[in-house]
Specification:
Blueprint (H helix, E strand, L loop, with lengths): L2 E5 L5 H11 L4 E4 L8 H4 L5 H8 L1 H15 L4 E4 L7 H8 L3 E7 L2 H10 L9 H5 L23 H18 L6 E6 H4 L5 H11 L27 H13 L4 H5 L7
């Protein structure tokens, strides 16, 4: 049986989880499992920290033991969402041939705008920012130093930086055993949701899909402030990463008020 982690970021993963739960009634399907409590920021690109963080947090140990028990009974487990992303190298080693995972990506500028409406990096930082999201000052961030010391970093830029780090990391995982594919959120529900069906079947096998379910993620909020053109170095790196993940310049610029 498979332990499966499908990743995305502001990709309506709650809706994907609901469809998967209905299609695979014999599986355990969770949306964002432990959420921020996966503490992905603590282990991001820090493989030596896996055992330390696990050893310090009983609830993480219990989560993995519960997955182990489910698999031992022949029950597939599926986590749909992004917060567990940094644990993938550890999980791949722990579960070996049992694990399958997919990479779901969305237009970075829409993702960063969505996160900004949810208050990420706006004012006092909450647990998501502290425990899960990658900061420009994090020593293990691949693009650490992209901002100058004196730069004021907006909430939108913080969120865009996290998109860059997470999706660059996930792109590096594509050569791992168990990878079933890269999927753009924008493609999932078009053409009778063929891409979404392909995603779920690649992870879990054949299922009875109900694509007519009412959306689970209905959150809509207004941006708290005007979004200004991001730091040019950040904009350049995000653009290159997004094009590498299948977006055209037109698709990126169509959602912005500035030029690349």
């Amino acid at each position: 049986e498979a332990v499966v982690f499908a990743r995305g970021w502001r990709n309506a993963t709650a809706d994907i989880a609901a469809i998967a739960s209905s299609a695979y009634p014999d599986a355990i399907v969770e949306h964002e499992g432990l959420g921020a409590r996966y503490r992905s920021r603590m282990v991001f690109r820090r493989p030596r920290q896996f055992t330390n963080v696990l050893g310090s947090h009983v609830y993480l140990q219990r989560k993995l033991i519960n997955i182990d028990d489910a698999l031992a009974k022949g029950t597939p487990y599926m986590d749909v969402g992004w917060p567990v992303y940094a644990w993938l190298p550890y999980l791949a080693k722990r579960y070996g041939k049992q694990i399958r995972f997919a990479h779901v990506v969305r237009n970075p500028f829409l993702v960063a705008a969505s996160l900004t409406t949810h208050g990420r990096f706006s004012g006092k930082m909450g647990r998501w920012e502290k425990l899960s999201m990658i900061h420009p000052t994090d020593k293990n961030a691949k693009f650490q130093g992209i901002f100058e010391d004196q730069d004021e970093i907006s909430a939108f830029e913080h969120n865009l930086f996290h998109w860059l780090e997470l999706n660059t990391f996930m792109a590096e995982q594509h050569d791992r055993d168990g990878f079933v594919g890269l999927f753009r959120f924008e493609d999932l529900y078009v053409d009778s949701a063929k891409k979404l069906t392909s995603l779920l079947e690649g992870l879990m096998g054949s299922g009875d899909f109900d694509m007519q379910q009412s959306p689970v993620d209905r959150v809509q909020k207004k941006l708290p402030a005007e979004i200004k053109k991001p730091n040019p170095r950040l904009l350049d790196e995000v653009t290159k990463a997004a094009i590498g993940l299948g977006y055209s310049e037109k698709e990126l610029t169509d959602v912005m008020d500035w030029d690349l």
